[in-house]
Design a protein that fits this description.
The protein is an all-alpha fold and about 230 residues long. Helix content is about 50%, strand content about 0%. It has eleven helices and no strands. The longest helix has 22 residues.
């Protein structure tokens, strides 16, 4: 059975737990959503023992201790379910919608969500850097960077000299949502390889016989040099 998406009441409960019991460095709900989007898209499966402490804001999240306290047990359950629900949605190819709060004018800004997403890329830094440098797919991250650095203290890091218009912001948010789906697809072949038992990886021995410009054997439809060959030939 697919995981049940969190209800509005459950999101409120999760936000309340983070605010009341989390460390002062705990993420907001919006940051967490962006961060978990990266966790789901990452080229390797990120265990919850690795991502839960970052959300909580403390280097140590002792799951057995948390499980003994109903409120903290709820925190783990809700975060994991939201992560699993997001993963299921992307695997099914459904439209991804980021969780973003609205300002006093009823407009989503997306800055915290984008910062949460970029924070998640630090878990697999080299692989995300490779995506950013990919001429064909690197553009998936551009709207996210633009939102994350909109108000950066260093003016040189800001994407626009003038304040964003509502239209530009809406386009960036749409682009960020589409970028998540592109990132998920980009790293899918690496996640599949990582899940295979070692005994099932013997086919790697024959991959060098595939031409660089031939279709990749993984079935992605891309050229071998732009897919699995990108990892195995370099």
């Amino acid at each position: 059975m697919p995981p049940t998406p969190l209800s509005e009441a459950e999101f409120d409960q999760l936000a309340d737990i983070l605010e009341r019991f989390g460390d002062e460095r705990a993420m907001t709900l919006e940051e967490m959503d962006g961060f978990l989007a990266t966790v789901v898209c990452s080229p390797r499966d990120i265990p919850r023992s690795e991502y839960l402490p970052i959300i909580w804001g403390d280097a140590i999240v002792n799951e057995p201790a948390f499980a003994a306290k109903p409120i903290l047990k709820d925190f783990i359950s809700l975060v994991v379910r939201h992560r699993d629900s997001m993963d299921h949605l992307l695997r099914e190819g459904e439209t991804f919608t980021p969780l973003m709060f609205e300002d006093e004018n009823g407009n989503a800004r997306g800055n915290d969500w984008a910062k949460g997403f970029l924070r998640g890329t630090e878990l697999c830094k080299a692989d995300w850097a490779a995506l950013l440098g990919d001429e064909e797919q690197g553009g998936a991250l551009v709207p996210i960077f633009a939102l994350a650095y909109e108000n950066d203290p260093d003016p040189k890091m800001r994407p626009y000299k003038e304040p964003m218009t509502d239209e530009v912001r809406k386009n960036l948010i749409v682009g960020a949502a589409a970028g998540v789906m592109r990132c998920f697809e980009y790293f899918e072949s690496l996640r599949v390889l990582a899940r295979l038992p070692i005994g099932d990886l013997t086919y790697r021995r024959i991959l060098p016989k595939v031409g660089r410009n031939d279709p990749c054997p993984c079935g992605s439809g891309k050229k071998f040099k732009h897919c699995c060959g990108k990892v195995m030939l370099h």
